[in-house]
Amino acid sequence: MALEHAILVSLLEQPGSGYELARRFERSIGRFWTATHQQIYHVLKRMETDGWVTAVEIGQGGRPDKRSWSVAAPGRDVLTAWLRAPVQPEAVRHELAVKIRGAAFDDAGGRAALITEVERYRATHEDTLDRYLTGERRDFPDAGTLDTGQRLQHVVLRGGIAYERMVLDWLDDVLATLRGLDR
Description:
about 180 residues; mainly alpha; Arc Repressor Mutant, subunit A; 2 domains; 3-stranded antiparallel beta sheet; 7 helices; about 10% strand; DNA binding
């Protein structure tokens, strides 16, 4: 997937300024595709040149005008073609997993350092899960009243929640295993 596809999906969900789009990436799309503000603005300009998106100037009374972006017909065509193309499973690259396997060749001091690293790593995933759950409560308080777009957004979020729970379960297993090695 390219950043362009994530931007097209977001703009089809709701047109907006580059700043608003970047905020959406931080709040929801960033759960599965990250981009900096600079990357988003750079790609928007390229997509405008390619005719995939259009922008209208909006006055802000005393502040600089902002540009509100929306998807143009060629952008919708590009997205439709991408949506219909097959998806290949992603290759998993997991540095921590390699370090855990490498712990067999390190002494107890190295394993103790690895335990500290796994605990830190676990805390970041616990924070992510907490953010996802908070977002779910905020954005989807009544799952029975969701429209099609919201239902699809919610199923993606539920996948992120399930993934974080799986990682936390695995990390708990890793910690129990590492702590049991030197007994």
